[in-house]
Amino acid sequence: MIPFQPQIADATPIASAMERLNGVKVSAAQLQTALERLSSLPAHLRNKAPAQALALQALAAEEAFAEDYGSAALHARIVALAKWTALHDPERQSDAEAVIEAAARFPLSESEDGVRFEPGGFQEMILFIEELPW
Fold first, then answer.
1. Which of 16, 41, 62, 117 could bridge to 122 as Cys pair (CB 3.0-4.6 Å)?
2. What sign does the CA torsion over 46, 33, 21, 94 have?
3. Model-level pTM?
4. Alpha-helical segments (H) within 7-69
5. Closest Cα to residue 115, out of 20, 4, 37, 43?
6. pLDDT tens per residue, range 15-43
């Protein structure tokens, strides 16, 4: 049995949500700015999804993302980074700049609890970036 794949008028399959999120080009600077924007929210709003969404939508508009999913892509990368950090670097021993650069570049994947970075590959990318001579 062939799984259902929605299509648009020209018979081109519609990209999955994950493909759309991964298709948005996010720079390390944009991701860093998004993290700073969320951390600058008032304390009582910082963990509220609607406040985060509005802050990231405003940032995506300011950054003029070409894709319609700019704010969603930023949010997905921030969530994946938070999950990875909590599980694999809770003491934050990795180089912060390398982690942000990797989070901007590494593909998102789906898991049972939502979006994430594949842990082994993400760690390898961080280590690779740490070794770059820039």
1. 117
2. negative
3. 0.84
4. 17-23, 28-39, 49-63
5. 20
6. 789 999 999 999 999 999 999 999 999 99
